[in-house]
Amino acid sequence: MHNPTKTTIQHRRGRLALALVATTMFAALSAAPAQAHDSLTSTTPEKDTTVATAPTAVALTLSEPPTDAASLKTSVIKVTDSTGATISDGKVTISGATLSTTITKGANGPYTVLWRAVSSDGHPIEGSYSFTVQDPTPTPTATAQPGQTSASATPATTATPATTATQQAAADSVRPEDSNGPIVAALAAAVILIVAAGFFFSQRSRRPER
Questions:
Q1: Can you give the pTM of this predicted structure?
Q2: With contact defined as beta carbons under 8 Å apart, do 82 and 134 qualify?
């Protein structure tokens, strides 16, 4: 006769082995879609490189085209310069597996790119990378208009006719008035003669008669 206790143990071991196999297969099948997520394959400008000219756009290429990313409007590319200022326009263009956005020129230094898209398996994917810009072209600055420059320089370098006339009038006002000079001189001479004549006659009158 068979030992029922031993048979029961063997059956239980068999069922446990089948359960372990089923669990392992389920875990493997569940992991397969996660491993199939799309990945970033290339960028323009390239990751961790230095460019001498500030780019006008940033592009990212995935291993597969994103799933319905255009209609879902879930694709995002944000670019900031070395000062932290956002220089991307917020619009993402999708062409096949490539996503791109337009950017303006920022400050020299590291540019940081943050991106997000929808993988071909429907799962969201995202990441970040950076590149460096060392553009020797100076940033344009506001300059004075030629007309404004010449107008501001004129008073400092040359005297206008109005200013010259004013200065001449001021100089004339401090000069002594000598138009009555001859009359004053004649009156002075007459006074002197009168005084001299009076003195002469007074002295004559004081002399004793002989």
A1: 0.51
A2: no
